[in-house]
Amino acid sequence: MRWNLWLCQGILRVGRQSRYLRAMAAQNSQASSGTNEGISGGEVMTAGIIIIGDEILKGYTQDTNSFFMCKKLHSLGVKVSKISVVPDEVDAIADEISSFASRFTYVLTSGGIGPTHDDVTFEAVAQAFGEKVFPHPEMVELVKKFFGKTEAECPEMKLARIPESSLLNYGVDDKTGRPFSYPLISVRNVYVFPGIPSLMRRALEGLGHLFRNEKTQFCSQEIYVNTEEILIAPILDQANVSFRRRTSLGSYPDWVNNYFRVKLTLDSDSKEHLEEAVSFLMENLPKGIVVPLVANPVSQAAKDVYALAESDSPLGQKVAAAIRTIEEALDRYILSKLCVGFNGGKDCTALLHLFYAAVQRRYPERSEKLRALYIRTVSPFPEMEEFIKDTAQRIGHTGIYGSSFAPSISLTAFFMTRATLLSGA
């Protein structure tokens, strides 16, 4: 919707707020933090997430907001107890908010904020607490500033009509260190987040202090098992009975993985209790079925690749030869002049990992992106496209530059090619 673009542009272009707005923001943040501390009472902090939107229930849009919220809240020491998806109906939203607000420390809603008929979240929050919406003076001024609208009945002013007891919470941009120009509305323990994923994430990142639980830090560990889940079920049952009060145990089969068949996850708010449960499993699981899988090889690429290259094993010798070629390229050219051909295949994926390891070791503090060129075929496989996208995100500092050339086009201008790097591999 057009208002989405206006809001994004407004947030980016609006500079400093007046002293009055800053003072109000500080007061609101303090008041909100104090309320949260009173709710928690030193106990485990919980959260309920309400995703609002017909488009989610109809399958028109995929919900990614709840995934991000769960991950962020877990890192802040808050246990997410329930996620609910409700339609764009005032009564349905209000009922869910009323139920969640009485059961959880925090309630986070996402969606239903805007100028159109189906944006009814503010109205529903007000109804949940027996309040009315009204044109908040500060929000009215912000709408005027963002959209240049002054008419009381214009669609944009719907964003300024919020519940009577609302607090305006101004977060801080992690990248710039500057306060946000647009606030997040909260009513008691309910926090009303936008539905646009980029805005929701920005708001939650900048307002993490409102939810942080200093008394709780979750610990987790994964165990990978190369056997069928049914064969270890009795041991998992024993572990669950013995440790479930302080450590949760999850068992997730994976029928297509090349390295393991079951991933076990253990989570606790106590490192000691976690280690006790892990020790029990390691001692009682059948010998030889636990796989020493590295879940995130990218983070320790340099360490592992160079250790293999120095191992003098047959594979290590081939890796060492490839690394020498890469290092020669790094000696002769600056990083911006090097590019890796990458189409998602096994050989070029290995090449990219070796290249990343060499750069990680030589430039551990770099901010410059690696360059990789993907030449897209006329009819690419969706799974391959997704893998290439995931690889770029996993490595982080890699820019994948796509081209839509015909598959017959070949590259001849690279200093480094897969054949050169992996010769003999």
Q: Can you give me a brief rundown of this structure?
A:
This protein is α/β, with parallel strands linked by helices and 425 residues long. 43% of the residues lie in helices and 18% in strands.
Description of the structure:
There is one protein chain. The protein is α/β, with parallel strands linked by helices and about 425 residues long. Helices cover about 45% and strands about 20% of the residues. It has helices at about 1-15, 20-40, 55, 65-75, 90-105, 120-130, 135-145, 195-205, 230-245, 270-285, 300-310, 315-330, 345-360, 380-395, 420; strands spanning about 45-50, 80-85, 105-110, 135, 160-165, 165-170, 185, 190-195, 220-225, 245-255, 260-270, 290, 340, 370-375, 400-405. The strands form four sheets. The chain has a six-stranded mixed sheet with strand order 2-1-3-8-7-6, sandwiched between helices. Helix 5 (about 90-105) crosses helix 6, helix 11 (about 300-310) packs across helix 12 and helix 11 (about 300-310) crosses helix 13 (about 345-360). The longest helix is centred in the N-terminal third of the chain and has 22 residues, at about 20-40. The protein is globular. The two termini are about 50 Å apart.
Number of helices: 15
Computed CA radius of gyration, to the nearest angstrom: 26 Å
User: What fraction of residues sit in β-strands?
Assistant: 15-25%
Largest sheet: 6 strands, mixed
Number of strand segments: 15
- Report the principal-axis shape: globular
| Residue runs with pLDDT of under 50 for 5 or more positions | 1-42, 404-425
Overall SS class: alpha/beta
User: In sequence order, what are the helices and strands, one letter per element?
Assistant: HHEHHEHEHEHEEEEHEHEEHEHHEHEHEH
Mean pLDDT across all amino acids: 84
Biggest sheet, spatial arrangement of strands: 2-1-3-8-7-6
What proportion of the residues is helical, as a percent range? 40-55%
How many angstroms separate the termini? 52 Å
